[in-house]
Design brief:
The chain has about 190 residues and is an alpha+beta fold. It has two domains: about 80 residues, ACT domain (Alpha-Beta Plaits), CATH 3.30.70.260; about 80 residues, 2-Layer Sandwich (Alpha-Beta Plaits), CATH 3.30.70.1150. It is about 30% helix and about 40% strand. It contains five helices and eight strands, in the order βαββαβαβαββαβ. A four-stranded antiparallel sheet has the order 2-3-1-4. A four-stranded antiparallel sheet has the order 6-7-5-8. The longest helix is centred in the middle third of the chain and has 13 residues. It is elongated and about 55 Å long. The N terminus is likely disordered.
Length: about 190
Amino acid sequence: MSPLNIEKGSTSHSAYDLRSHMSDTVETHTLAVLVENEPGVLARVIGLFSGRGYNIESLTVAEVDHTGRRSRITIVTSGTPQVINQIKMQLDRMVPVHEVADLTVEGPFVSRELALIKVIAKGEHRVESLRIAEIFRANVVDSTLQSFVFEITGTPEKVDAFCELMRPLGEVRLARTGVAAIARGV
């Protein structure tokens, strides 16, 4: 068959067919974005995600340089490698953005999340919740006759696992900070 007579249903691979070269694998990436600490910057960054239909799985922001008026936004997002690259390029082009680092590809990094988990339970379920908390190294930060509030720090997966074990013991109420992350080493 000549290249000009491509039959319907054939599987010819052309250099012009970009879909055959693109990955459909969805990956989760942690991005650290250093920005000017000024009104509206966070809204602009979030607007970039919502305007293009990108999902934010976790978002934290705090000032990291008071004298230089800089904040660090840590974003956990997911998408194909092409979508992740698009996000990084678009963030890097924004005027108040000083630096975009993809911690996931730049090397090892440490990430943690803080959660407060209230477990409303009675009887043996209260005892069991304390036993599980000890295994997970969660601290009791408040206690009443009907409930405990636990503080746990760790990876999002650790927080999820702790919550899943607590749910059968009673009503669970949850507050999470989102992921904070930083590169390891120098």
